[in-house]
Each structure stands twice: as structure tokens, then as C-alpha cells.
Amino acid sequence: MTMLALACLAQAALLTVAAWSLPVLARPTLPFGVRVPAARVTDPAITAQRRRYSRAVVTLGVLAALVSAAAVIRGTPGVLTATAVLLGAADIALYATAHRAIHAAKRHGNWYADTRQAITADTTWRTHPVRPPWPLLIPSLALLTGTAAIGLARYGSLPDTLAALRGLGVDVHHRVATTPVTAFAPVLSQTAITILAPLLVAVIVRARPETDAEHPASSARRYRVYVRGIATLLLAGVACANLTLLLLGLQQWDLLTPSPLTTAATWAPMAAVVAAFLIFGVRVGEAGHRLPAQPGESGSGYVQRDDDRYWHLAGTVYINRHDPAILVHQRVGSRWTLNLGNPVAWTVLAVLASLALLQLLGIIDLPSTS
Description:
With 370 residues, this protein is mostly helical. It has 3 domains: 1-112, no CATH class; 128-293, no CATH class; 307-370, no CATH class. The protein contains 10 helices and 8 strands. Strands 1-4 form a two-stranded parallel ribbon. Strands 2-3 form a two-stranded antiparallel ribbon. A two-stranded antiparallel ribbon has the order 5-6. Helix 1 (2-25) runs antiparallel to helix 2. The chain is globular and about 75 Å long. 29% of the residues are buried.
């Protein structure tokens, strides 16, 4: 019961920290997903929404932790999932409320009046692109090869049933039939990650860079550092994920006994990845905005064009038919999103939806650790 209570408290804490950090790590000119001129980043309307949002998120997190702990003590664990879902929904609602409030203040105050709006393009992005550190894939490939070799050597002597994989753990009380798919699930997951992550990196380094019309040279340099850092973390994260999957495979194949120490070792690589992303986000910031400016660069006299009309759902969905870009940097978090105004984006979504539907119908069986 003690471990379950601690897990519930950790769950509430993680959700709360994630929600609280969104506006803290965001670019100053994009508070809660709203584009504002640099001269308005300290406007009272924005600072008030930041304070109100932070207080509400922390308060809800404390309440969720108390409710979760009470549910464990009273023996009603079914409440835990509902509490987590409600906490996440409430945090999203708070963020959307702050977004609407700042957008209304911007519109009523006509913040872009008397400003010279512009956009900039980094032409060196094509001539001198960011080169990902591909050698970081060597440990991932070595782990994948080693896991596959161990699995092949062990497959012939496996029992009729195997312990089920549950997230980043092994459920010894729930068994599944031994088949090539269940037995090699860790290897299949490693293969998928090792293929998809480099493809994602290749797409990210070719996506349109985020530059600021007010400081074009500095923003272009910062974004290069930012993208290379993201690529490094993603490629290193593949090795960490493959190490976790190797440890899961060893437990499922009865080569490693599940225990608290084993569980901690299994979680450690992914915890290191999360910590690395958090440190990177704090030090570099979204699109590299926390990095120092280029020495000697003065303001251009322009401000970044107000493009709020193309962004929806609090800066998470981008729709612009006149923009040829397929992938653009999202306004919320260090993530990229598809331009839903581009037909190619809908083709990608259709392929993903088809795969999901085929799996639901049982026609194909995609790798899974759940």
C-alpha cells in the first residue's frame, strides 16, 4: 500500500510539474500560445494570467494528491485513474482559459498597432543544414543486436506462457501465450524505435526554422543550437529506450528476476532521458530562446508577424493552406506539429489512422509493451 500511495503522489506531482512548466519554459513572445510583441511580454494582463494559472495548477495538484492518497487508504484504487484524468483535464482547461484571456486583452488593446510586422527566412538552413550526430545510433544498434541474439538463443527453451509486459514493468501474475510476437515484443519495440527516431530526427532538422524578425541573426543561431540539441537527445534516448527494453526482455525470458532493484534499473535509463530533456529545456528553452543573443546585433525595428489566425486549440494545431511547410514547431512545448493545411499532412494522418484501425480489428499486430 505504501508503494501504491507513493506512486499516486508521484503521478500527481508529475502532472502538476508538467502543467506548471508549460508557460515557464515557453518563449516570452508566445505566452499561453498567443503571439505578442516583445514590448508587451510584461503586460499586466499576461503577468496576472501567469500568476493565476500557476496558483490554480499547484492547488489542483495538491488536492489530487490528497484524493489519491485517501483512495489508497480507503481501498478504492478505481478512483486513482479518474483523479489523474480529471487533473489533466482541469490543467488543460486552465491553460485554455489563460490563452483566451490573453488573446482577448491583445485584441482589445490592439497590441500590434504602430508596429512593423515582418517574417524572416534563414537561407543557410538549406545550404548549411544541421547535421545530426548519427554515431550516437551505434549503441542503439548494438543493444538491438544483443537483445535479438539473446532472444533467439532463449526462444527454444521458453515455457508455454510468459509474464506480460506492463508499461516499463513485468507483471508476473498475468501470463500470455508464448508466440513469436509476445516472445520478441521487446525486440520488435526496439526495432520500431531504432527506425522511427532517426526518421523523426531527419524530418526535424529539415523542418522550417523558427526565426524572429526582431533579431533574425541571433534567433537563427539559437535555433541551430536548439535543433542539434534535440537531435542529440532523441538519438541518445533511443539507446536508453533500447536498454530499458533489453532489461524487460531479460525479465520476460526468465533470465532476470523481477525485484525492486530490477525495476529501478529498468526505469533508470528512461528517467535519465526525462531529466536530460528537462535540463535542456531550462537551459536552452523552446526554440533556443534562453541562449544568449549574438554579440553586436541590434533590433531590426520589426516585430514577428501576428499569425494567430493560423493557430488553433491554444497554439497546438496549425492550419495554413498558403504555407508549403509540412512540419512546424508547435507553440506549446518543445514539439513539432503537422500543418493541417497541407494535403501531405492529411496523407500522413490517414496512414497512421489506417494502421491503428487495422490493429483494433486484429488484422495486424503492432509491437507493444502493454
